[in-house]
Amino acid sequence: MLLSGDRRRERQVSHVALGADTSAVAAALGRPGRACPTGSLDDLAEQFPGGTPPAQAESTLDRLRPQTARRWVYAPGSGAASCAPQKGATQFGLDPQGRVVWYVAVTGRTPVVFPDTP
Asked: What pLDDT score was predicted for residue 2?
């Protein structure tokens, strides 16, 4: 069962489409708690839907890594955001122009959303 804060965050994120720019993200969720470097994105492997073959997850991450220039992370609730997203955090991967490449609405509860095609 999702906590009410998680449902609210999912609703907020649902207003942001892949390809939207940071102004759309900020309009839906406010400024990020943390602007972070890309990092390895290895934590996203845990955010793929259950049953995703590891090779498919890795090939998708291989495609997303070069497209992702930075990440915006929102802490769960009113806590402090970390570049290592905690359970319940929201995370957006942004390209060099500030457009959304992928996102996780609620870490640990919702899967990563990314384009289906390269």
From this structure: 44
